[in-house]
Amino acid sequence: MTNDNTNGTKHHWWQRKPLTPEKALGWLELRHLFIGQCLVLLLHLLWMPVWLGLPALLAALWRFQQLRARVPRAGILLRLAAISLVAAGLFLEYGQMLQLEAMIGLLVGIYLLKLLETDSLRDGRVVCGLGFVVLASAFLHDQGPLMAVAAVLTVSWLIGGLVLIAGARARREALRETAWLMGLSLPLMLGLFVLFPRLPPLWNVPQLNEATTGLTDSVSPGDIAALGRSDALAFRARFDGELPATSQRYWRVYTLSLFDGVRWSRATTERLQRALGGASSRYALNSRRVSGEAARHHYELLLEPDPRPWRPSLGAPLASNREARYLVDGTLEGLTSLNTRELLQLASSGAPPSNAPQWMQRLNMLLPDTGNPRAHEFARQLMQQARGDPRQFLRLLFQHFNRNPFHYTLTPPRIEGQSRVDDFLFDSQSGYCTHYASTSVFLARSAGLPARMVAGYLGGESQGSALDGEQELTVRQYDAHAWVEVFYADRWHRFDPTAAVAPERISQGALSLQGQPGFMADAGLRAFTLNNSLLSDLRRHWERFEYRWQRSVVGFRLDEQRNLWQRIFGEFRWEWLVWGMLGLLASVTALGAGLVLWSGRRVSPHAGVRAYRRLVIRLARFGLGPMMGEAPGSHLRRIAIREPGNALALFALADLIEQWLYSDVSNIGVFDSDGVPVHSVQRQWKAHCDELVWKAKKGAVGLTD
């Protein structure tokens, strides 16, 4: 099937019609679109494959060569091949296309390759519109202040591209119009931020099969030691008042009760219900509060994204501002995974939970039937020395770790086999917190005491000061820790054997491990800041500012919006919020309409046309307006013949307006065709107009009816 174009020649359905010059993109617009694509791509490159920049570069080179008539226009086969190669590269990179990063990468690739078929002004507007969508998807990666600033700059550039396509004659004029549009939109943006009902953010989407650094469902003795290599953020905590002492900052995440001789794992609610039966409320409760002892700590957590449901708490969790799942073993779980940073307000006891039904005590005494015979015998001997007193047993165990040559290290020797507790306790005697906690739980159970291992974090780097009234803790992955809870005297008691071997780890936090092989080995240059006081201070100030940003801007949810209205007006009503939003939109609309009506003229893209129209308004008062269809130069020369006393000024104005209107400023820059600066032409025009009007007011010339 073929079609006829305007020249009478025929073309096939896969070929595009040639564009007229006024509808085709020029060098200026095309270059602006390409730079905009690069800016959008930069927002993604920290999370996307670096090779995605190659399609953008190749598409731009093809288009620029096409403008030079060195290559033909990209056909449909070339475009399909390009997008197929991008999709294949993403599949090889991620292993599937249903992963979130792969889908974002495909969107970015389509946007970059769109330049291949961007020939007309309409295509340019489509590229700018697609750029806004791809830019918004960058917030799926990060919502920090740097991303916000970069997004605003990129949006400004894309709007400038739309202004250029709309008819701006030079880049400077486009930038000035863009700044004007951004300034007009700022009050509306701020008003909608405060007034518009808070909805779940666009970036709150499921993270598919995403690898996450942090604690896992099951732990072997060396697993938590591996987290000491990373300085990735785990969460941040803000306290109103004094911070708890470093030795009391035990952030429990979950408990490990099942041991198979090699690994410790969780007794999840589902496993307990299958094994023991009964209602699910026997093992977990969905609520905002649980009954128990009085809360000792009140704080706010800024949690990092994590597809796992756990929520850290300083001791046993007691209450939160969101409905959560309180497990009977003191674990707190969210009802949904964290797909973005989230603020959570908690109250907790600062101590282990007191609840321990009989079935839980029996569960926390289970051991494998075989393996570790020397450890079993050693535990029985310790209990005999303690005369059956659990407190004395733990005291003797602490002294054993403290007085014997045990060594705390991030790189312990590898232990294999079915008697790993024996090998660690009597042979290697070198390990991380998990080795000591695992061995202690095994010995306590062998002695007939219910015991379990708790995985979480210990410590945290403090930010701020007590003088501010607010203090914050930054907890990182290298703060990961494991300790023991032993049940006696009708409640659980915390026991941390690491304090016997490395007391500085408890009193000073994980930073006391600096210098050990493997500590922060994966942190790269960020580890250098810990040894540089200036960089360390700058890092803390930046992290505190970022926390404020996340809390006040990204975390500005419905509760914060309601609290803001209550602080301003004393009470909150939904109808006030609706009327406030409608009033803001009406005010903006009225302001825009008032500006248009006040101007009393159509908007013109050319400064010369606007200046001539202002002069016409003045001349029309004396009956000297233009005739129908009369050009500006002809109009002024006709008046000059009628008014010989002012002929020189009017002839000069006629020459200036023609010079001003018909010089192509986009090609000649800031000079006209005679080498005279355009700003000089504007000044001369203004001077002649002022002289003419001044003479008219003084009656020196006959510009009257």
TrEMBL record:
Q: Which InterPro entries match?
A: Bact_TGase-like, Papain-like_cys_pep_sf, TgpA-like_C, TgpA_N, Transglutaminase-like
**SMART domains, per database record:** TGc
Residue ranges occupied by any Transglutaminase-like domain in the UniProt entry: 425-499
Recite the UniProt keywords alphabetically.
Membrane, Transmembrane, Transmembrane helix
Q: Where are the transmembrane segments?
A: 34-62, 74-92, 98-116, 123-140, 146-167, 179-199, 576-598
Gene3D superfamilies xrefs = 3.10.620.30
Q: Does the keyword Transmembrane apply?
A: yes
* PANTHER family on file: PROTEIN-GLUTAMINE GAMMA-GLUTAMYLTRANSFERASE
The molecule here is called: DUF3488 domain-containing protein
Classification lineage = Bacteria, Pseudomonadati, Pseudomonadota, Gammaproteobacteria, Oceanospirillales
